[in-house]
Write a structure and sequence with these properties.
The structure holds two protein chains of two kinds. By secondary structure, chain A is mainly β. Chain A has one domain. In chain A, the strands form two sheets. Chain A has a three-stranded antiparallel beta sheet with strand order 3-4-5. Chain B has three domains: 215 residues, FAD/NAD(P)-binding domain, CATH 3.50.50.60; 108 residues, Alpha-Beta Complex (Flavocytochrome C3, Chain A, domain 1); 125 residues, Methane Monooxygenase Hydroxylase, Chain G, domain 1, CATH 1.20.58.100. Chain B is globular. The model of chain B has no long low-confidence stretch (mean pLDDT 96). The chains are: A mainly beta, B alpha/beta. The complex binds flavin-adenine dinucleotide. Flavin-adenine dinucleotide binds next to helix 1, strand 2, strand 3, strand 6 and helix 12 of chain B.
Amino acid sequence: MVLDENTGKAYCRSARDCWDCMSCVKACPHGAIETRLPYQLGYYPAKLIPLVGSNKISWTVVDIHGNVERFTFKTRND
Amino acid sequence: MPAKLPTKLEDVAEVRIETDILIIGAGNAGCYAAIEAKRRRPDLRVTLMEKAHIDRSGCLAAGMDAINTYIKKNETIESFVRWSRAQAGGLLREDLTITMAELLNQAIEEWEEWGLPIKKDENGEYLARGRWDIAIQGSEMKVILAEKVREYGCEVLNRVVATNYLLDGDRVVGAMGFGVRDGKFYIIKAGATIVATGGAAGLYKPYTNDGNDCHHQIWYCPFNVGTGYAMGIRAGAEMTTFEMRWCAVRTKDFNGPIDTISVGYKAPMINAKGEKILAERYAHMGGDAAPRFVRANAPMEEWLAGRGPCYVDTRHMTPEQVKNLKIDYLNERPSFVLFLAARGQDITKEPIEVYGSDPYIVGGHTASGYWIDVKRATTLPGLFACGDVAGGVPNKFVGGCAAEGILAARGAIEYLESLEDKGQVDESLVAAEKARVYAPAIRQAREGDGITPREMEERLQRLMDEYAGGVHQFYRMNRERLEYALKHLAILKDQTKYLIARDLHELMEAHEVIDRLDVAEVLVHHLLFREETRWPGWQNRVDFPERDDSRFDCFVNSRRDPKTGKIEVFTRPYEQIVPGDRYRP
Ligand SMILES: Cc1cc2nc3c(=O)[nH]c(=O)nc-3n(C[C@H](O)[C@H](O)[C@H](O)COP(=O)(O)OP(=O)(O)OC[C@H]3O[C@@H](n4cnc5c(N)ncnc54)[C@H](O)[C@@H]3O)c2cc1C
């Protein structure tokens, strides 16, 4: 991620070098980052969005047909 | 904001640090090494040098859903050695495997205490997922580990890329590198140095590669480019078993792990005709439990025989199992769940397609890396190695890399305590390294023309793919092709003087390709030397299709002469400690 000096916004400087590990998506305190798979791999428009809590995480996934699934699980022992 | 790229060497600021133990790479193994060093000797200064950020760097970035090596109650260190040995086609360092196995469980139990959730069965035991694997919820396991490193008082230099060792004769007395954000040149003098930079990805062209986006849609961490190997090669360290490449069956296109599905949910691998490939065609080699190289080779053979595509058959799974499978992936590779959504795929109706990955050099899965002793000392005095960068021990995985980190820290402390003098910094070597590091930036300022790291990286990857047994060649190679690869690697190495970098990130990429070239060259020498086929999916010499125990039941090692640049390849004998047939678990 780099900051664009003109807009004050961050962007992914080399999208083709992204591992799609989603670390930045999970770490962003504003939930402002979205991972999109390269079109060669997956069709438009699918989404996977995390909601990070202190000891757990919830993920919402929307597939290309609009089906929604949710998953919540523990990420740390109390 | 990242600093501007320097245009003159005189403009480069220097940072000089003196420490007791320097750890290069704050990944899985490096973090364990740091913690162990600090808790044994809290009075020592322990410094980690990390090219990314410790919180999410390395293989553990996205998390993990299993620990692949944990010794359960009904197993022993000996049974582990037997299994690992057979999986590796009979070739591993038994002394190293035993010393690692002694610490496997301790490392994982500690992680649990620090906060890593490990699943339990109805008896309160760790939930088994296969013979050695246990199931975890490791989404945040790296963050948890990084917190501990800081808590123990280790010093972390984030976003500093190591480029070469500091040498006093052949003794390692620290390392040099540069800041990707601050642009400064780092000279870190250390009593003992531990390298833990992981394996090498990006030597070969991935099949997902296209003109747009998918360049790094690969299985191994693409930011581990083999710098740890390259620094050792350049300094004359002995390396082992590079020819035992790690090629794996992964989910097709996405290149995601499949153990989750095949081990965790017992989904068999099938071909286009619906035949269970391993059970039906490889029963004599252990069927579903066949060594991993057999499993890597199997779908490729099916494709070649006209029976591809291949799948892991998930059609038997219940909705509950599918949900759990997706949670497993969300813990390890969340974007695989996105991939399924982007394909609109219901895996109870359509099985998941699999294919071979691009080849990697990974000492934690196969056995490539530094030749070390039981204390994890390399052949260079003062330098210790652990994790994917260390050789001789396949099937380390998460627990084994952590265990080796602990061992390397102990070795480093013992070495430090025996030292009579701290060694000298040779300023002429420092000046030469500084010039080498910033050369692509200076060239850009002076000439404004040359080769971009991306161009050279793609040239290298295509060369290796076509001539050194990449995935597009179904991992196959012969002497003539390997010799062609060597010839062009030499040209590429000579052309590195034309590399240009337009910002600090690109400067890092320039060094990544330089390092990959050094690793690739040694790799091709190893592939040429082993005139047999010991591991068909990993190392497939079509001109020598059989295993040849009379010549190659031994380790293939190499050493590059730092003065002449000549690479010498030779063998080391196998030493068996645990009795029994080495090809059977
Ligand atoms: C996708 C995937 C799934 C896996 N699944 C499992 C599993 O389920 N179970 C299991 O047991 N094992 C699994 N493994 C294996 C296991 O994760 C690795 O073997 C292990 O974590 C490697 O540890 P390491 O410390 O050697 O490397 P890493 O943890 O990758 O650490 C290397 C570190 O070195 C840094 N570095 C690299 N170059 C430089 C440089 N020049 N200067 C400074 N720093 C540098 C990197 O940024 C990184 O932080 C998996 C691996 C992958 C890639």
